[in-house]
Each structure stands twice: as structure tokens, then as C-alpha cells.
Q: What sequence folds into this?
């Protein structure tokens, strides 16, 4: 069980309003904020290099910490400045040529779809969405006949940006691996609210962010690349941290996941991310998952009782993202109306999830994503603010 009073005490801003945007950019606990600001101050006192040196051991231990969160080995972890940066670094390293196929789910995210379509165009590959089952998850039975040896990559979004759906990972990975395809899992909306265990899920590559459910700083991200996948990847965005310039004409690259890191990065944000991971681990991922699911289903129930409100979440087993519309009121207006009552939500539209929103003829939804630090009375407040 999460100690609500304790986590709320660690999150001063959660008392000032009803914060329902942990799928966008969550409120960090003071432990994260202190770490980031403290390091920036230290850099100002002694310079960035010496400040970095003082924290080397801790930063090195960070690979083990992230590995324990993700169920992988420390050398399978890389730190980056966003989930997108992680995803792109890994995707660019997947060899693709004319005639190759890439499969995606119908909840593919725009930030992945655009580079997928662009690269497919450049090399003469084809991107195909796998149909969803009636309940909303990717249909593994429909996936199987689409798989053949031309499929080099399956891009799988664990939890979409626009709703409470949770895609099945292990069964997709198992099917994809039968034809030798790599699976790139976008776990941006799952890490920090759901258990994401690389070993159990089997994905070759996992990308994630700090700023959402982990409650870390903006501009922080991470990447997991299985050792078994490394020899199949050709890292393209490399620098003097990814490799060593051995002679005027020779270089070597690292053979672990850190080949995907660049030398320059925000140490303060990395330390903040590590503080966020420590915070999540100390609460326990299972209690976090249970608390987030509780809040989200309580909110869905409340919203369903409001005349004119329709909840749109797909999936048999829903997580912390709640999506809804209000009859005759645009999502933006709903967001603004809620803001005047101290409730923070976001709007997500067709441009972020084209396949899914086009298929459902849903141009936009309001997204409410309560974390464990939101109390039930606050959810009641949010629902009351929508009552006509
Ligand atoms: C937010 C989001 C991303 C991108 O995360 P960044 O931190 O902006 O790089 C990727 N995929 C999904 C599903 C997201 O919701």
C-alpha cells in the first residue's frame, strides 16, 4: 500500500490543485527536485566537470539501478535526454533495405510513426499496422499471418498516449521472434505506472522517459537493448563516448548499450532521473500499479455518471490513462473549464495517434492521468467540475 499522506507530503504542488497529467509531465517529488537543483548549484560553484566527478560512482551505480527497475543487466542500459532520442537511436540502428517490412500497432505514436514512414520511404520498406482485437489490444492472431522473414521490425507501443489500453507484449514478442524480427517496445507510458520487466516481456529494445509516470525531470530518458540484439544493430548516431578514435583512420565502438549515449548530457537531470527511480523502487512498483489503477477506475466511474460525458478507454485491462469527451464541448474547452477549477488535464488528438483516432472517428479526447499522489476527494472535485 502507498502511504498517501507521505507521498503527498513529498509533493507540495499536489495540495494546490488536482493534478491529472502524469501521462504528460508529472509532478516530481521533492527528492527529485532537490537533486536536480542541488547539482546545478554545485556546477555553478566548482564547474560542471568537477561537479560531475564528485558524482561518478553514483552515476555508474545508476545503470544497475535502472537495470533492476527494468529487469535487465546494467550493460543493457543507456541514458539519453528523452524517450524519443532513445527510440530514434535504436531505430536508426536497425538495418533496413528495399522490400523489408515493419509492423506497427494501431496505437502507434506520431513521434515513432513519422521516422518509420520517412525511413521506409527512403529505403523502399513498407510500414503496416496490425489490426486490433475488438477489445482494443493488438490482435496477436491477426499478427501471425502478417509475419514472414521480410518483417525486420515490430514497433510496439505498450501503453498508448491517448488512453488506458495496455498492449500484450510477451505474445507479440514470441510471434515476432519466430520470424527473426526485432521488437522495439515504446514503454514511455508504462514505466513508472506498470511493471516493465525486460526478461519477462522479451522485447529486444525498450525506450522510456523520465518525465511521465516516473516523476523525473523533463529532458531525461533511457534505453534498454538486450545483449542478444546488439550484434544485429548498426548504431549510426555515435560520438567519442560511443567509441574510441584509435588512430587517424581507425575507431572502435563500444559493444554495450552505452554506444547509444552521447558524451554530453545534463548530469543534473540524470541524477534527478535516478532519484525518481529510487523513489519509485522504494514505494514498490506493484503498490504503485494498484494505486494508479484504483484512481483511474474511480475516475472513469465518476465520469460515466456525468450527463454528456463519454469515456473512451479501450482494453480489457486498463491502466492509469483516462480518456473522455463531453457532448457539444471541444476538448480544449473542457481543459480550460477544468483549469479554472484547479484541475490539470491535457488534450490529445488525431495527430498523435492517427491510425487509432481515424479508425474510431475520434478527432480528440481529454486525457486525465491521475498518479498515486492524487486523493479520492480530488477526483470527486474533478468530476464535480464537469457537472452541467
Ligand atoms: C510521450 C510519449 C513519447 C515521447 O516521449 P518523450 O519524452 O517526449 O521523448 C513516446 N511514446 C509515447 C507513447 C508517448 O506517450
A:
Amino acid at each position: 500500500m502507498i502511504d498517501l499522506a507521505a507521498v503527498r507530503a513529498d509533493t507540495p504542488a499536489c495540495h494546490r490543485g488536482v493534478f491529472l497529467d502524469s501521462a504528460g509531465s508529472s509532478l516530481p517529488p521533492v527528492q527529485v527536485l532537490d537533486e536536480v537543483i542541488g547539482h546545478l548549484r554545485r556546477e555553478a560553484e566548482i564547474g560542471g566537470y568537477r561537479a560531475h566527478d564528485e558524482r561518478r560512482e553514483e552515476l555508474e551505480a545508476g545503470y544497475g539501478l535502472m537495470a533492476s527497475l527494468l529487469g535487465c543487466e546494467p550493460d543493457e542500459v543507456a541514458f539519453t535526454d528523452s524517450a524519443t532520442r532513445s527510440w530514434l537511436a535504436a531505430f536508426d540502428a536497425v538495418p533496413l533495405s528495399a522490400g523489408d517490412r515493419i509492423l506497427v500497432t494501431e496505437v502507434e505514436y506520431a513521434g515513432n510513426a513519422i521516422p518509420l514512414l520517412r525511413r521506409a520511404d527512403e529505403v523502399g520498406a513498407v510500414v503496416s499496422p496490425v489490426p486490433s482485437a475488438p477489445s482494443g489490444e493488438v490482435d496477436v492472431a491477426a499478427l501471425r499471418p502478417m509475419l514472414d522473414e521480410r518483417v525486420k521490425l515490430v514497433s510496439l507501443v505498450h501503453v498508448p498516449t491517448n488512453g488506458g489500453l495496455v498492449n500484450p507484449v510477451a505474445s507479440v514478442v514470441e510471434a515476432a521472434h519466430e520470424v527473426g524480427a526485432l521488437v522495439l517496445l515504446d514503454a514511455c507510458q508504462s514505466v513508472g505506472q506498470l511493471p516493465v520487466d525486460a526478461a519477462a516481456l522479451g522485447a529486444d529494445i525498450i525506450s522510456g522517459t523520465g518525465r511521465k509516470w516516473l516523476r523525473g525531470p523533463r529532458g531525461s530518458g533511457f534505453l534498454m537493448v538486450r545483449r542478444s540484439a546488439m550484434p544485429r544493430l548498426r548504431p549510426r548516431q555515435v560520438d567519442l563516448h560511443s567509441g574510441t578514435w584509435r588512430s587517424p583512420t581507425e575507431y572502435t565502438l563500444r559493444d554495450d548499450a552505452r554506444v547509444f549515449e552521447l558524451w554530453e548530457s545534463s548530469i543534473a537531470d540524470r541524477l534527478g532521473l535516478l532519484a525518481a527511480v529510487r523513489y519509485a523502487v522504494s514505494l514498490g512498483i506493484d503498490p504503485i500499479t494498484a494505486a494508479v489503477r484504483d484512481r483511474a477506475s474511480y475516475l472513469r466511474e465518476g465520469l460515466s455518471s456525468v450527463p454528456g460525458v463519454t469515456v473512451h478507454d479501450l482494453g480489457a485491462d486498463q491502466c492509469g490513462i483516462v480518456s473522455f469527451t463531453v457532448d457539444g464541448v471541444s476538448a480544449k474547452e473542457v481543459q480550460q473549464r477544468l483549469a479554472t477549477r484547479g484541475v490539470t488535464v491535457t488534450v490529445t488528438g488525431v495527430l498523435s495517434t492517427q491510425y487509432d483516432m481515424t479508425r474510431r472517428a475520434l478527432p480528440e479526447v481529454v486525457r486525465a492521468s491521475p498518479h498515486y499522489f492524487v486523493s479520492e476527494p480530488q477526483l470527486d472535485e474533478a468530476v464535480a467540475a464537469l457537472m452541467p
Remarks:
- The chain is about 40% helix and 15% strand.
- The radius of gyration is 21 Å.
- The chain has a mean pLDDT of 98.
- Residues 82-84, 109, 111, 157, 160-161, 186, 188-189, 209, 211, 221 surround pyridoxal-5'-phosphate (CB under 6 Å).
